Amino acid sequence: MPRPIRIACATESGRLIDGHFGSCRAFAIWDVGPDDITFIEARSTLEADESADRNRARAELIQDCQITYVQEIGGPAAAKVVRAGVHPLRVAPGTSMHAMLERLQQALRKPPPWLARVMGIEAASLARYRLHIEQAEEG
């Protein structure tokens, strides 16, 4: 069974993904696996906001996460997040944190290629393709 992935949700309210990456009050950190959703902690962004490069400091704050859900993120900030090894995903305003995490949990059971890459595993569709290529090369 794949290991859980760590998620950062940009939040103002603590219940919704209602924060812009560059200005949210906190990131709610979750571990999401195929069978469990576990709240880890809320990480305040106050200290990061005192940094000369706020976006880099915010990216470092969540660098142990594989995905961050945000309401908005600018291009330069997204580049810093990606460089930190985190996959940024925008969601519609007012998206429920728990509902989004449940949708992700469902996707973990049969991940599309992009999510399998985030999880560090090979997607089933890619494995089938690889097997097909290997068989063609042998025959």
From TrEMBL:
Transmembrane segments: none
Domain called Dinitrogenase iron-molybdenum cofactor biosynthesis: residue spans: 14-106
Coiled-coil stretches: none
CDD domains, per the entry: NifX (cd00853)
Keywords: Nitrogen fixation
InterPro entries in the cross-refs: Di-Nase_FeMo-co_biosynth, DiNase_FeMo-co_biosyn_sf, NifX-like, NifX/NifY_domain
Highest taxon of source: Bacteria
PANTHER family to which the protein is assigned, alphabetical: IRON-MOLIBDENUM COFACTOR PROCESSING PROTEIN, IRON-MOLYBDENUM PROTEIN-RELATED-RELATED
Family to which this protein belongs: Belongs to the NifX/NifY family.
Descriptive protein name: Dinitrogenase iron-molybdenum cofactor biosynthesis domain-containing protein
Gene source species: Thermochromatium tepidum ATCC 43061
High-level lineage: Bacteria, Pseudomonadati, Pseudomonadota, Gammaproteobacteria, Chromatiales
